[in-house]
Amino acid sequence: MSETRAKSLLKVDDIHVYYGSIHAIKGISFEVNEGEIVTLIGANGAGKSTTLNTVSGLLRPRSGLISFEGKSIVGIGASKVVGLGMALCPEGRRVFQQMTVRENLEMGGFSRPGEEIPQSLENVFTRFPRLKEREKQVAGTLSGGEQQMLAMGRALMSKPKLLMLDEPSMGLAPILVEQIFDIIKELHASGTTILLVEQNAQMALSVADRAYVLGTGKITISGPAEAVLADDRVRAAYLGG
Amino acid sequence: MVSFLRFLINGISLGSVYAIIALGYTMVYGIAKMLNFAHGDVIMVGAYIAFCAMQYLGLPPLVAVLAAMVFCTVLGMVIEGLAYRPLRQATKLAVLITAIGVSYLLQNTALLIWSSNPKVFPSVFNIGTIRLFDGNLVISSETILTIVANIVIMIALTLFTGRTKMGKAMRAVSEDRGAAELMGINVNRTISLTFAIGSALAAIAGVLLCSAYPTLQPTTGSMPGIKAFTAAVFGGIGSIPGAMIGGLLLGIIEILGKAYISTELGDALVFAVLIVVLLFKPAGLLGKPMREKV
Ligand SMILES: Nc1ncnc2c1ncn2[C@@H]1O[C@H](COP(=O)(O)OP(=O)(O)OP(=O)(O)O)[C@@H](O)[C@H]1O
Ligand SMILES: [Mg+2]
């Protein structure tokens, strides 16, 4: 983790995001370098999801810059962003409930050429054998853990260079949380850069290279994950003392 | 008995027209989450275009139908792009009022161009009749054509939404617009495509309707539009098979009600049935009850 792979993949510079008159993000800057796992932690309502939704193009910042691989992506819209190599696995999973597992995955590969899809499906099924077993099942009838795997598999179908995960462990039993984090480590090992938002700060910090702590719309602490994990303020606020 | 059969077949035929119109309502509602009240008037425009193509340009009926479909497809996309797209973030009420405005605009434009004098729609698809039960049961080729058209459209749409990439994208947009965008699906283009398909179907419905009831005037689309909308709600708005079943049931109820209960009350009966169904199944026959998102 100490070697300098400084190639910047995502750069966010002083973005401000509003919901109507609510100023939700008040000037956030951060960076994700190729090959890293970066985590964004913070209390409920701090603005973590808003940040990821803005980076992915679902929301538009009122001001500030967002660039991916050196090119500005502000205002191009979510449907174009994914084609550049950045996928968001959104909060609450948001799988297409009435579509089958396979159809959900196909939608994940919407931005890719059709001839790639069979191979990508194969890759996802190898990583998540459970999804292969349930290929024809309607996604709404999957268990919470299975839906999370589907949401991650769906995001992987677009072959992202940067995978953004918004609370992948939400609502899952501890054993499943372990599994999800194992998968995150595997994905990272196979070369995917990851931007991880988590409630579970302990787990997130244990897998991440670097971390940013968000407090109501602003970054309050940042640094290498071990340092953030050791920070007294973080311990007090997010790690139960 | 034979007369009952005749009413039933007429009901299925009328119901098939309702079903084809209802598909437009239900697809647009499912994907764009709006009630396109101008949809009924697109039917009328389609019928006029087909009428003009045959009457003034002397084109063969099939070409005339194709022309009407192309015209209505473009019209539907233009209406969506100019009137509804700017309101994507607006309240439902604003969109509904706009749709009513578009409906008036279409009717009044038709009034300017074609006047209020009814045109007699030529019976283009009358290529013969089938006589059964010693000639007591006469089924016209138009009736059969309407029923067949409905079945073909149903199968085509089911295949389209179930098998093709764009069709699946439509279902994805209808479930979760934001998530669909994250997949790389262009939501505006998907909604536009939905209007295109719905409007092309409206053109077909317009020609079929006017073949069976040949009086064509600027208000021709209103009542069938409202009934087809009722059919869509009846079957469960947003559901494609629901539109089919709702349309057929409505057509049958209307014709049988007019035949056996009262000619005047036929239409009222249709709406009474709707109310009863919604009392017991608020989401319609095949509609999915609203579920809380987890
Ligand atoms: N659609 C919205 N309309 C108005 N305000 C919103 C909307 N979405 C979020 N907010 C507000 O913006 C702030 C940041 O919300 P956000 O969802 O980004 O927080 P979060 O850090 O992801 O929280 P959590 O951990 O609970 O998911 C909150 O105060 C929230 O109330
Ligand atoms: Mg959140």
User: Quick one: overall form of chain B?
Assistant: globular
| CATH architecture descriptor name of chain A | 3-Layer(aba) Sandwich
Structural class of chain B: mainly alpha
**Helix percentage of chain B:** over 70%
Oligomeric organization of the protein chains: heterodimer
Total beta-strand segments of chain A: 10
**Order of strands across the main sheet of chain A:** 6-7-8-3-9-10
CATH superfamily of chain A: P-loop containing nucleotide triphosphate hydrolases
Q: Tell me the CATH topology of chain B.
A: ABC transporter involved in vitamin B12 uptake, BtuC
Broad structural category of chain A? alpha/beta
Low-confidence stretches of chain B: 290-294
Please summarize the sheet with the most strands of chain A: 6 strands, mixed
The biggest sheet of chain B, with number of strands, parallel, antiparallel or mixed sense and barrel status, is: 2 strands, antiparallel
Number of helical segments with 4 or more residues of chain A: 10
**SSE succession of chain B:** HHHHEEEHHHHEHHH
The shape of chain A is globular
Strand line-up of the largest beta sheet of chain B:
1-4
Total domains of chain B: 1
**N-C termini distance of chain A:** 27 Å
What's the order of the H and E elements of chain A?
A: EEEHEEHEHHHHEHEHEEHH
Written account of the structure:
The complex is a heterodimer of chains A (241) and B (294). Chain A has a single domain, classed as Rossmann fold, CATH 3.40.50.300. Chain A starts with 7 loop residues before the first strand and ends with a helix. Chain A has ten helices and ten strands. Chain A is α/β, with parallel strands linked by helices. Chain A is globular. Helices cover 37% and strands 27% of the residues of chain A. By secondary structure, chain B is mainly alpha-helical. Chain B has a two-stranded antiparallel sheet with strand order 1-4. Chain B has a two-stranded antiparallel sheet with strand order 2-3. Chain B has one domain: ABC transporter involved in vitamin B12 uptake, BtuC, CATH 1.10.3470. The C terminus of chain B is likely disordered. Chain B has eleven helices and four strands. The longest helix of chain B has 31 residues. Chain B starts with a helix and ends in a 14-residue tail after the last helix. At the A-B interface, helix 2 and helix 3 of A face helix 6 and helix 7 of B. Magnesium ion binds next to helix 1 of chain A.
